Every structure is written in structure tokens, then in C-alpha cells.
Amino acid sequence: MEDDAPVIYGLEFQARALTSQTAESDAIRFLVGTQSLKFDNQIHIIDFDDENNIISKSVLLHQAGEIWHISASPADKAVLSTCYNKTSESRVVTCGAVWSMPPEWESGSHESPDDPHNSHNPQNLELLCHLDNSAHGNASSVLWEPMGDGKRVISLADNHALLWDLTESSTQATISSSATLEGKGQLKFTSGKWSPHHNCTQLATANDTAIRGWDLRTMSQIYCIENAHGQLVRDLDFNPNKQYYLASCGDDCKVKFWDVRNINEPVKSLEEHSHWVWSVRYNHSHDQLVLTGSSDSRVILSNMVSISSEPFGHLVDDDDLSDGEDNHQDEKSKEPLQDSIISTYEEHEDSVYAVEWSSADPWLFASLSYDGRLVINRVPRALKYHILL
Amino acid sequence: MDGDICATDTATTPPDSDPARKRRVHGMLKLYYGLNEEGKTVDQAESMNPCDINGTHFDPEVYLNKLRRECSLGELMDQESCMVKQIRSLDSDMQTLVYENYNKFISATDTIRKMKNDFKKMEDEMDCLSTNMAAITEFSAHISGTLQDQHAQITKLSGVHTLLRKLQFLFELPARLNKCLELQAYSQAVSSHRRARCVLQQYSHMPSFRGIQDDCHAIMDKLAQELRQKFRDGGSSAEDLSECVELLLQLDEPAEELCDKFLSHAQSRLEANLRGLEAETDILEFIDRGCNEFVSSLCLVIASYQELFVNRPQEGNLASKDIPHMAIGKLHAFVDALATCYFSLVERRIQEEKSVGDNSLLVRALDRFHRRLQAVAKLLPGSAVPSQGTEIVVRAARERIKQYLAALQSFYLDSLRDVRQALAAPRLATGKDAPASLPELLSSLSASILNQIKSVLASVHLFTAKDITFSNKPYFKGEFCSQGVRESLVVNFIKFVCQSSRQFCESAGDRGGSTPPALLLLLSRLCLDYETSTITYILTLTDEQFLVQHHSPVTAVAALCGEARGAAQKLLNHYVKVQGLIISQMLRKSVETRDWVNTIEPRNVRAVMKRVVEDTTSIDVQVGLLYEEGVRKAHSSDSSKRTFSVYSGSRQQTRYAPSYAPSAPMDTNLLSNIHKLFSERIDIFSPVEFNKVSVLTGIIKISLKTFLECVRLRTFGRYGLQQIQVDCNYLQMYLWRFVSDENLVHFLLDEIVGSTAHRCLDPAPMEQSVIEVICERG
């Protein structure tokens, strides 16, 4: 069975920010934010037609500044948040804001792929509210409450984690609580992740080489993995199915998997990339699939079966086994499964700063490199059927 | 004829020769009576001649004729007178003979007559004797008939007498036994009692005998008691003991019990011996004492025991047949139990022998231990003791190998610590001279390790020396050499060296600085040397010294070399990573901490860049001390300038030009991508080769890539961009000479400046000439 070729889409600008549209569960849709100091920055809404292998894009203008981080509301398709650089009076400030897409973008501004620069100007994003945190420094990321109603976000600004309540259709944001990282020197959160487990009461953050866990009810630290990586920790992700499992990646070229109940040793450590690893993502449904992107311009898809929630493969109920074919498959799944690198994707020419699984199709993912190239890839079919059957 | 006659004449003529004459006469008489056959045969031989005058066939006619024919007259006359003389003498002889014989006849007749008379008289006396004898016979019969009764009575009486004597013996027995007891003449008492025992047993139904028997029993019990007492008392000599045992056995003491007692008695003594073995003395002394006291007394005990119980002549009435069997069984159990105690003591003592300094003492002690146990083996053929002893020796040898391995390992770690200190110390004292001693440190380290291995091998070799008794055991011939020395000791040590070297990468990996990079470099070279020569040398040495016969599979040299090479590679990679990281950190700090938007116009190369170049140079020197130069791609003489022109020349123009033209932002990416399409992908943290250029290339790659990534995270003002231009130009001037392919440096620096320009709010690049002036001034 031949795998489909990757689909490549080029942006005009350099780009670092990529997210899948979390609230959209039917269409395969990714949002990309560009970085340009000289032109109006854009948000590209990229739809992928899985059957025809065709990409269609829409562009919305993000005039506030170059986008460093983007995330989509889990509840409302039209709502998203960005962290952007604002340059004023030779000062560069990073701010966070919640935006809404104009309602007519879908109907009016569909462009054909062969005509990227259409005549009429793209529409602007509509500002819902600023996550105004001038008192707290530069925002590095904005996190939505996972599977929430889109009313709560956390922003990480320098050494503060701020929990915001969005009210009045997200047009008002008020800080409900905050936590501050104290310590020597200039501490700064580099990234964070809101845990989908424990009723969404936990947050994990990374600063320098340490990973910290926070309890959002009391806004206090619950664990701290000092020296989680030899160098800077770049990204974190929670295992969607195993509540204590956490993946991290960093400048030591490693991807580490942690059980936060035992923070002395990582459960597993991978060293496959030949430069810093910038992004790590668990597949939303099949947590053995782990995606990493690195500044060695590679994307690696790993199969971490041994520490997944399905260490023995997909367990099929006996009732479901109706015919001989199923039986055969069942036997196959009982073979000992081993952790392995499934595939290394080398479509990028520049550093890959973001990778993301599609929220609609668990077998599909996108990766974004600095030169503005977005690549959409699929999990190899053989593996897909192996997991499913 | 004459001659013959003359001869006979001469023979007969001397009348005085009496015996001859007599014989002749005698012979003639015989001849006459025809008695002598001898004479006949002689005659027959002679008588054939008819002329022989003495022969039987004498024919006078022939004789006369012959004479007449042959002889002259004178001769005949002589012959005739001679003949006459002879006839006359013969006649007189004849007369004498007849006379003599007549007298003899007369006397013989008289004798016969006298005898006749005497016989008559004798007959009468004989008759008288026979009548007397008949009378005597009758009389004798009469007497014996009368004495018959009395004889029977006397026989009976004498029987009673002996019985009485026996009875007296019996009655006196208790007293006698008592006396014997008093005098301690035990053996006499026992033999007396033995004699009486059966009788007493037989007549025990009679009260009086019963009494005696009881008395005897009581006394004998007492005696047995006393014997036992004596037996139990430790002091008695072996001979006494054996006598005791002998007597007790005769007293029907159960042999089993005796064996037990004997053994328990011996056991207490031997245990005392064992207790006497103190652990404080040194091992040789300990073993000596053990051998002299315990083992030799054990041998004594075994010998005397066998004498007493096992080899004793079978006395049917005493011993049931399985006594030797039973006794041997007991002896084995006894010896095994004691030997176990002894062995556990010895083993504990051997385990205390931890110092690895002098192996010969231990080997000698083990040898002695083993040798002495052979005595036990001879005495007690089926015993498991000697084999257990051998096992102890084997275990000790194994343990020893482990200890030597541990010692080697700790020696290695100590040497490493020394090297570490040596690396640290001069740096404190004299600054930059430290790396100068790297090759010396390496050679002294590897030499001292090699020496240590050799000395350990020599120590271990003692175990297989020819004069050591256990060296010809199969274990020491085969497994000890191959599995023990080669695998457990040498191979494991080499593996340990590799593994501990790897650990430097693991533990230090996370935080960097804990292991000095110079040490990593040195270890990597050490491992590489091991791969190329040392491992082969050590293993060959071992194989030669121990004549290893590989019965079981052993680690191949190639596998070990592979492991060493792996370790060397890993260490060198790690070295590159650590050094790269140190420089990266400098660059990163310098980029992150500066406000690039509001920086001033560049006047100088930043200090950090100079520092980077300095550090790279010193790394270059350091690596050059241990590794060869390596291959680099050919480059033109003015490399630094040539590359620099890339920035300022046409390429830069094409790259930056689109940014000034807002209408076509796509071109930038297009050009950049086309450029990348034709350049090879660069792996930043990739394995390096074992040479200086490759190492330096690795370090510079890491540093510059970090620089690039950091720049991309910042926003620059006009002067920020210019500063980066200056810095990159400076780096270009100095770094190209270190790397294998200078295009790599070009490419990365190009990327840095390009990315900076992208991240610049006001991208106005500096004039190349100005940059050059600034760089040269710096």
C-alpha cells in the first residue's frame, strides 16, 4: 500500500506559529501565523481536502504585528488567540490578544491555489480583547482550557502565569489568578501546556532547563523537574490518555518522556534529531504516535508503544471478532510491540519550529518551517492499519 | 712262548711276595673248583692259545711241537729244568694246601657237634618259660578283674575334682575381679570374665550361680564404667584409648556407641583445635596452624579409628559383620562435619584476605591447605573432603580474580582522578600551559594501566605455577585461564574502561561542565589507542602467559576493539558537544542579553567574538596534541576575503534587494530555497572522525548554528544588523582555517547575516570596506 505523497504549501513570509483548529472536527484545518517586520502579517487558514489531496487557503490580516504563537479556541471555531510583537518607539513588546475571524471569510474569500495574490484585500481579524499584561512583561504563549467552553485562557508572560476569565462573548478579559516564578536571575517561561487531565486543574511550564507543574486552584507549584534537559526546554505536551505522562523536548536534541510522579528519571529518552528539538506533540487519539520537529529541518514520527496507553496494541473485544480475518488481525496485534522511529520527514529546508496533529483526522499532521513551508503528511498506512485492526 | 713263561716266572718266582702268591694260589683254587666265572672268562680269553701252559685249552702236544720247532737245544734244556722246577714248587704248594684244609674240617666238625648239645638244653628252658608265662597271664587277669571297680571310682573322683576346681574359680571370680579392678588389670579381668561368662549364663537358673553372675555383672559393669570413664577422660594416650576400646568391645559394648563415643571424644579435641585457630594472624600462619593442629590430628584420629574399628580382625563372637561398614559410615559423617567447620573457618579467613598486594602468600597458603588435605584423601579414600577443599581453592581463586578486577578498576579510576587533578592543577598555577602536558598524561596513564595489568597477570599467574599442587586440577588448567583470567579479569577490565568512559558522556551529558573536556579528549584517544593496539597486545600477552585453551567461546578481540572504538567515538562526539556547548553558551548569552534595536553603531568587533576565536584556537591546540591533522578541502590563499565578498557582493544584493521592493516578497524565499536546494543538508550534532579538523568542524558547526537560531529569535535595529555583519566577518576571518570545508562556515555565517537582515526593522547593511577596517582594527 503506497502512502500518499506529502502536500506542501508555501507561505510568502517566514513563519513560526502553527495550530490546528481545535473546535473544528470535520474539516482538516490548520492556522498559520506569519512573521514579517515589514509587511502586514497574516493568518493563513489552510483547509486540506483529504480525498482530493488539495489545499485551499484563506488569508486574514493580522496587522498588530508578527506572530510568535497562535492557538485556537476549543469551543468556538471563529475565535483564536495570538502572541505578537509590537514595535513602537524602538521598543519591541510581545502582547497577547484574542481575536475573532470575520464571519464572512469562509464564503467570500476563498481563493484558488493558483492565484495566491488575489485582487481584493484580505479581511482583517476582529479584535475581541487584549490580554493586557504590560505589568507582567512579554507574553510567550496563550493557552486555552482544553476541551473547555472557551472562557478561560492562561497566558505566560516572562515569569508570570496568568489565568484569565473571558466574559461577554470574550470581549472582556479579567485576571482571575496568577502565579509567579521566583528565583535568581531573569526567569522566563519558554513554553507551557495546560493539562487536559484532573479536571483541567494543572499546568506545566518550562523555563530554562526545568519543567514545573502548577495547580491552578491554588496557583502553586506541585512539582519541578530540575535539569529535565541538558539545555533549554523548548516544548511540552501531555499524553492525552495517560494523565501523569508528559513529553518534553529541548536544545540537547532529546525528547524525554516523564512520569510526573517520579521526576528523578525520565521514563524514556530519544535522541534522534541532530539539532534542537522545538516541538513535540502526542497524537490526540493514539498516544503512541509522537511527532517532533527540529531545527535540523526534520520531522520525526515515533511509535512509543511501550509507554503508551495501549502497550499491547489495540485491544479488540472478543465480541467484535466475527470473521476469520479479524482473528488473523488479532493475532498480529499480539506480537510484541517495540518503540521505533516510524518515519523521518525531510521535506523542509529550514528549521522546523512547529508541528501539529490535525484535530479532525488523527492520521494527519502538519509541520511548519521558518522559511514558510507548511507540509501536510499522513501516518504510513501500514502502521495506521496495524494500530486500528 | 718264552716271554710268556718268563713273565709268569718273574711273576711267580719271588717267593717272598706273599700276597701276590697267595692270590695266585687262591685264584688257582677257584679255578680248580670252577667257582669263579671271572676266572673262566679270563681263561677263555687266554685259553684260545693252546700253547698257554696255564690255560684250559693247553695242548701239551702242540706246546711240545712248538718248543721243538722253535727252540735250540740249550734253550730246550733250560726250558726243561725250569719246567721241572716249577712242577716241584707246584707239588709242594699242593701239599701245604691240602694240609691246611684238613685242619679246618676237623675244627668245623667239632663245633657242629658242640652246637647240637647246646640246642638240646635250650629247648628244655624254653618249655619252662612258656609254662611260667601262662601262669603269669592267668595271674594278671585275675588282678585286673579285681581292680576294675576301683578304677572307675578314681576316674569319677578326678572328674569331681576338676569340677570343683572350676566351681572354686567361679566362686572366687567376683573377688578376683574386684582385685583386678583394684589393680587396674582390666585386661585380665576381662579375660577371666570372658571365660566364666558362658558357664554362668548356662547355669543362671540356679540361685547360687545367679548370685555369682549378678556379682560379676555388677563388677563388670563397674569395670566397664571405669573403662568408659577412662575413655571419656581426655588425657589418656591413643594406645590407652585403643586398649580401652578393645576391652569394651570384648565386653560386648555396642560398637556403634563406642564409635560415637570415640568420635565425640575426638571431636571435642578437634573442635578445641578449631577454636584455637585465630583469625588475626596472617593467612599463611593461619593455614599452617590449621594444617599442623587440626588436619594432622584429624588424620591421627582417622588412622587410630580405622585401626580400632575398621581394620580389626574379625572375631566372630564379638562383632557382627557390618561393624566396619557402620564404622566407616560414622567416620565419614564425622570427618565431613568437622571438615565443614574447618572449611567454613578457612573460607571466612580467605575472604578476609582482601589486600591484593602480595598474592604469593595466599597462593602458598592455599597450596599448603590443598596439599595437607591430600593426606586425608589417602587415609579416607571415599571422602568428599579433598574435593571440597579443591572447591574452596577454586572459589578462592575466583574470588581473587574478582578482587583483582575490582583493584584494577579502582586503580583505573584513581589514575583518572590523578589525571583530572593534573589537568586542573597547572591551569590554576600557570594558566594556559595545562594542555601542553596532555600527551605526557596520556602516555603515563596508559603505561601505568598496562603495568598494573601486567603485575596483576603476574600475580594471578602464581595460581598456575608448576610447583603448586592444585595447578594441575582441570579447573586451573582450563576454566581458570580462559573464563577466569581472560574473560573475567582482562576482558572485563577492558570493557570496564570502555563503559566508564561512556559514563563520562552519560553523567556529564546533562549539565556539561562536570567532566573537564580535556579529560574527554584524552580518554577518547586512550580508547582509540586501545582499539588500534593495546587490546590486541594485552590479550596476546594473556594468552601466551596462560596458554589459554578456549574450550568455551571467548570474547573476540575484534568485538572488544569495536567496543573500544565505539567508546572512543562517543567520547570524541561528547567532547565536541561539550566544547561546542561552551562556545554556544557564550554566543547565546551575547545575543539574548543585548537590546539589538537600540544598539549603537558598531565600532568594534564584540569581545565575545574574540573570545570565541581564542577558545577555538586553544581547542585546536588541545586537539592537535592528541589527534592528527586530518584532511581538509583545498582552499584558496585568500579564503577569508573571498568569502567575505559573498556578503557584500552580488549575492547579498540579490538577497536583500527584494526586501526593499515590497511588491515581490516571494523572491526572497525562492532564492533562499534555490540556494538550499543545491547545498547539502548539514547535520549539526553529527559523529566526527578521529582527527583534528573534523573535531573542530563539529565544534564550529554547533556554535554557528546556535548563533543562527538565537539571531532568529531577536529583532534588530539598523546598527544591530551592522554589528552582526562585523561579528560574522570577524569570525569568517579566523574560523575558516579550522574546518575541513570552509564553505560550511560561509554558508552558516551567510545564514546568520541573512536571518539578521530579515529580523531587522531597518535593514541597511554596512559597507564592506568599513567592516573590514573595523575587523582589522580589532
TrEMBL record, chain A:
What PROSITE patterns is this protein classified in?
A: WD_REPEATS_1, WD_REPEATS_2, WD_REPEATS_REGION
Q: Which Pfam families match?
A: Beta-prop_EIPR1, WD40
Keyword Repeat listed? The answer is: yes
Which InterPro entries has this protein been placed in?
Beta-prop_EIPR1-like, EIPR1, WD40/YVTN_repeat-like_dom_sf, WD40_repeat_CS, WD40_repeat_dom_sf, WD40_rpt
Recorded hits in Gene3D superfamilies, A to Z, give:
YVTN repeat-like/Quinoprotein amine dehydrogenase
Biological process according to GO: protein ubiquitination; regulation of cellular localization; regulation of transport
Repeat region (WD), residues: 226-262
Query: What ranges does the record give for the region Disordered, renumbered to this chain?
Result: 104-124, 318-339
Q: Which UniProt keywords apply?
A: Repeat, WD repeat
Q: Which domain of life is it from?
A: Eukaryota
Q: Which residues form the EIPR1-like beta-propeller domain?
A: 7-301
Where is there biased composition of kind Basic and acidic residues? 107-118, 325-337
The entry sums up its family as follows: Belongs to the WD repeat EIPR1 family.
> What protein am I looking at?
EARP complex and GARP complex interacting protein 1
* Organism of derivation: Hucho hucho (huchen)
Automatic annotation (TrEMBL), chain B:
Q: Which Pfam families match?
A: Sec5 (PF15469)
Protein keywords: Coiled coil, Endosome, Golgi apparatus, Lipid transport, Protein transport, Transport
GO annotation terms (biological process):
endocytic recycling; Golgi organization; Golgi vesicle transport; lipid transport; lysosomal transport; protein transport; retrograde transport, endosome to Golgi
Q: What is its main location?
A: Golgi
Q: Which residues form the Exocyst complex component EXOC2/Sec5 N-terminal domain?
A: 50-275
* Region described as Disordered: spans on this chain: 1-23
What protein does this entry describe? Vacuolar protein sorting-associated protein 51 homolog
Q: Where in the cell is it found?
A: Golgi apparatus, trans-Golgi network; Recycling endosome
- Keyword Coiled coil listed? The answer is yes
Q: Known SUPFAM superfamilies for this protein?
A: Cullin repeat-like
> Which N-terminal stretch is annotated as signal sequence?
none
Matching InterPro entries: Cullin_repeat-like_dom_sf (IPR016159), EXOC2/Sec5_N_dom (IPR039481), Vps51 (IPR014812)
Annotated family: Belongs to the VPS51 family.
Record-level GO cellular component terms: cytosol; EARP complex; GARP complex; membrane
Which species is this record about? Hucho hucho (huchen)
The lineage's top-level taxon is: Eukaryota
The job of this chain, per UniProt, is described as:
Involved in retrograde transport from early and late endosomes to the late Golgi. The GARP complex is required for the maintenance of protein retrieval from endosomes to the TGN, acid hydrolase sorting, lysosome function, endosomal cholesterol traffic and autophagy. Acts as component of the EARP complex that is involved in endocytic recycling.
How would you summarize the oligomeric state and partners of this protein? Component of the Golgi-associated retrograde protein (GARP) complex. Component of the endosome-associated retrograde protein (EARP) complex.
